[in-house]
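JOB MANIFEST
job_type = single_chain_structure
chain_count = 1
residues = 186
[input]
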Amino acid sequence: MTLFADVLALGVVTALACLPLITAPAALSTACAVVRGTGDDQPATAKRYLVLLRDRFRPGDLAAGLAALTGMLLLAADLALAGAGLPGARVFAVTAAAIGACAVIVGLRACAHPASLTDWRAAVRGAAGASVRDVGGSALVLLALAAAVLCAWMMLPLAFLVPGPLAMALTAIDVRNVRTAFSSTR
């Protein structure tokens, strides 16, 4: 229960750190790192999160946030154009939604990847490979995101709590993926 309470507190500070939008990948990545640290008996507290977050707003972290924000805006514009009744709109909308879902999966898995703390390119490459190799884990990422969005939609104040459990789910999926890959090489 202590970890659950800490994860909820972690969700609040992560949500606040995500408010500028461009800081969202760094904030979620830091939350995943804090949750991952519980395996090494490090506390999953808001204080530890803030200490780690202080060093996270480097140019690479902000570039990752800008790329994520730009991608979301482009997807929203594409889907709005498809809804305007253009020829081939249904096929275009389905294709754009599929590409957007794949990008979200890779982006969230990159946030959970340990390399995201220092090198976003390596984290994205690792996440892309993991997304292809571990289709079940990719489906779990979508389910975790759907649960987070549904909780926030049903009760708006929960929007400030869901980043913590989402970070915990993403970290668990990444740890599961690493353990699965390790056991299959034996």
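[summary]
The two ends are 35 Å apart (CA to CA).
The mean pLDDT is 89.
exit_status = 0
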